[in-house]
Design goal:
By secondary structure, the chain is of the alpha/beta class. The chain contains eight helices and 14 strands.
Length: 279
């Protein structure tokens, strides 16, 4: 079980644009979970991945004029799990069709699809706009018997959702072994059979091309590996991308067009972009 560092950033002035941008920059330096509020942002990172200098550079170079003050607190893994469950992880409803909840929450029998996850630390729970955006697009996509690759699967939400929507063989990949352990547990909670794998883009060499490719990661990883992702798409297949800001939309479009992808749909939520492309 990992220990964590909670970094608290007070912002003056503070608004949603500032906290969203802080979260985006911190995500690039390994932070996983973000709790914005009226006065600033609390962000969590594994202690072994914490880089104080990188955070300080983000604050010094922050592009929006604001007074930013940082404090940090170490949290033991066991205490973090308790804090997460009791104070942060609440059920989330998406498009009136999906609810993501933990096993300690009551069921929602009136919602068509329920996904049950017990997150260990933080690997995507649906609370972030990118997971919600990807989920909404999948809810509108015919997936019956289609093969799926979910790159950077985290808690496994998107892979599990694909299976619940009728997908065939589904593979979930994440570089973090602990994330995959958690994803396996969540797959079991939902009684969905998914091929979970620890690895990075190199793991794709061991897979056959899929009908659907999911990548909710971040801008640099997506642009750096898009050619490898597209190589694992069947002709006529679709790739769904998120994890980047709306301001990065043109950069994604440029890379996608170079790889022969055609834009199908794009949405925006709280400054975050989700896009789907056809090969």
């Amino acid at each position: 079980m990992y220990d964590y560092v909670a970094v608290r950033i007070e912002a003056n002035p503070c608004d949603e644009n500032i906290t969203d941008l802080l979260a985006a920059f911190l995500a690039e330096v390994e932070f996983e979970t973000f709790e914005p509020d009226a006065a600033g942002l609390t962000a969590y990172v594994r202690k072994d991945k914490y880089n104080r200098q990188a955070v300080e550079e983000i604050l010094v170079d922050f592009p929006i004029p604001a007074e930013l003050k940082m404090t940090e607190t170490e949290i033991e893994g066991e205490d973090w799990n308790k804090e997460w469950e009791q104070n942060y992880f609440q059920p989330i409803h998406i498009a009136d069709k999906l609810v993501i909840r933990s096993s300690f929450h009551e069921s929602f029998p009136d919602v068509p699809i329920e996904i049950i996850i017990d997150p260990k630390m933080a690997f995507g729970t649906g609370h972030h706009a990118t997971t919600a955006g990807m989920s909404k697009m999948l809810l509108e996509e015919p997936l019956n018997d289609k093969t799926v690759i979910d790159m950077g699967t985290g808690t496994g939400i998107l892979a599990i959702l694909a299976k619940k929507l009728g997908a065939g063989k589904t593979v979930g990949i994440d570089i973090d072994e602990f994330a995959i352990e958690n994803a396996k547990e969540n797959g079991g909670l939902n009684k969905e059979e998914i091929d979970w794998r620890v690895g990075d883009d190199k793991e794709l060499a061991n897979l056959e091309p899929a009908d659907i490719f999911l990548a909710n990661i971040n801008l640099n990883v997506i642009t750096g590996n898009l050619a490898k992702y597209v190589a694992k798409l069947k002709p006529g297949g679709k790739i769904f991308l998120s994890g980047f800001l709306t301001t990065d939309r043109d950069r994604i479009m440029e890379e996608a067009e170079k790889k022969g992808l055609r834009l199908c749909k794009e949405t925006e939520e709280n400054g975050w972009k989700t896009m789907s492309f056809l090969l």
